[in-house]
């Protein structure tokens, strides 16, 4: 009897832990939590943790709690694979990542090979911000889903806006030297050439990713070129430090950006004094005018202490829940099938769709400018007193582009 009692005492906690694990959906968040990309990585982690808490308070997904597992990849593709394997070994079946398309390409390939080798133990990769077009074209994978607009989609919208701005005469391109930055420069040259052949490209610079601490030499080149506008896909410290150097040098040009709203960007813009001369293209922003999104923004800021940089993360998590409920399962294979062609009301309003052909999510996208706030714009950024203002909106149907993806399906 004594031996039986001891056995029960040992086994009972183990059974409790097993039950607890089965009642939890772990999502591995693989992004930079140290190094040059740490500020955006930490912000992303806090965003996903907030979303998990919000969903758990409403019963989670199919009654299961969500746990976000933060894994530091230092913006390094090889380290990302180490962290992905670590996540899988600990029972993670869903991973999410966004900062760095080189990382995204490595993860997509890793997950695809893992799923081929381990049938019945498949993993899904949710991409919330890595926007190299190849990820949903020649390098597409059934196991990869992207919620951010590809850089080609963004550049299409941005150059359509620039096409109608006759004051743009001379453009300088400056981007990070890796797959995403290279795609931004290529698309900018191609699309501006087609839509505004009169515009002169007066500079085209690539610089190391998250390595430059002083952008003043680059700013000097931009100033000397006579450019009236700069196009950049820079993110993280590379956009904040670039804009800071522009402020220090008194460079007065218009900026057309993908990620000027990230950590440190708004403060640097305010220092430039360029009131509504810095533009950003996003899938949503704080002063969009959609009441539900603005209510979410208010609650998010109150708890997290940050602006919502990633409305797409909200869409990702909510669509994950919708797909699991549609499939009545959290099996990655069934969730993937349910996500295909799933239509969804996005955070900032309007319907988006996860295209089955390439697993690219299409949604309304916005061009906004940063500067003094209007009376109906309640949210500033980084306590600058300035905020984002709607300039142009592109509806879902007009945001779609073709794909060359030839997807291999399980």
TrEMBL record:
Start and end residues of each Leucine-binding protein domain? 24-368
Q: Does the keyword Transport apply?
A: yes
Gene3D superfamilies in the cross-refs? 3.40.50.2300
Q: Which UniProt keywords apply?
A: Amino-acid transport, Signal, Transport
What Pfam families does the annotation carry?
A: Peripla_BP_6
Leader sequence residues:
1-21
The highest taxon in the source lineage is Bacteria
Does this UniProt record's set of keywords contain Ribosomal protein? no
Q: Which family does it belong to?
A: Belongs to the leucine-binding protein family.
Q: What is this protein called?
A: Branched-chain amino acid ABC transporter substrate-binding protein
> What is the source species?
Bradyrhizobium symbiodeficiens
């Amino acid at each position: 009897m004594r031996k039986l009692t001891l056995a029960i005492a040992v086994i009972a906690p183990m059974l409790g832990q097993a039950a607890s694990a089965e009642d939890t959906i772990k999502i591995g968040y693989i992004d930079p939590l140290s190094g040059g990309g740490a500020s955006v990585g930490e912000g992303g982690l806090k965003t996903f943790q907030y979303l998990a808490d919000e969903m758990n308070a409403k019963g989670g997904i199919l009654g299961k709690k969500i746990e976000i597992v933060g894994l530091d990849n230092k913006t390094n593709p090889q380290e990302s694979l180490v962290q992905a394997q670590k996540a899988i070994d600990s029972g993670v079946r869903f991973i999410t990542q966004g900062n760095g398309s080189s990382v995204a390409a490595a993860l997509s390939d890793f997950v695809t090979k893992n799923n081929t080798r381990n049938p019945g133990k498949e993993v899904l990769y949710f991409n919330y911000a890595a926007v190299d077009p190849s990820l949903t074209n020649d390098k597409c994978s059934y196991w990869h889903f992207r919620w951010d607009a590809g850089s080609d989609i963004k550049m299409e919208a941005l150059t359509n806006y620039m096409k109608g701005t006759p004051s743009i005469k001379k453009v300088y391109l400056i981007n990070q030297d890796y797959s995403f930055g290279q795609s931004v420069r290529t698309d900018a040259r191609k699309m501006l050439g087609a839509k505004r052949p009169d515009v002169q490209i007066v500079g085209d610079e690539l610089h190391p990713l998250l390595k430059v601490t002083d952008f003043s030499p680059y700013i000097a080149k931009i100033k000397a070129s006579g450019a009236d506008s700069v196009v950049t896909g820079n993110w993280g410290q590379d956009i904040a430090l670039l804009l800071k150097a522009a402020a220090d040098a008194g460079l007065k040009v218009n900026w057309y950006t993908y990620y000027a709203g990230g950590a440190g960007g708004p403060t640097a813009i305010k220092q430039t004094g360029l009131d509504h001369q810095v533009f950003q293209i996003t899938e949503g922003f704080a002063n969009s005018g959609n009441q539900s999104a603005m209510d979410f923004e208010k609650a998010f800021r109150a708890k997290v202490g940050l602006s919502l940089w990633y409305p797409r993360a909200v869409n990702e998590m909510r669509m994950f829940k919708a797909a699991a409920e549609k499939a009545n399962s959290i099996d990655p294979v069934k969730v993937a099938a349910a996500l295909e062609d799933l239509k969804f009301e996005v955070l900032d309003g309007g319907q988006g769709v996860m295209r089955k052909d390439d697993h690219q999510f299409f949604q309304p996208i916005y061009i906004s400018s940063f500067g003094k706030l209007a009376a109906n714009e309640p949210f500033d950024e980084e306590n600058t007193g300035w905020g984002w203002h709607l300039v142009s909106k592109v509806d879902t149907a007009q945001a779609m582009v073709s794909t060359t993806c030839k997807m291999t399906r399980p």
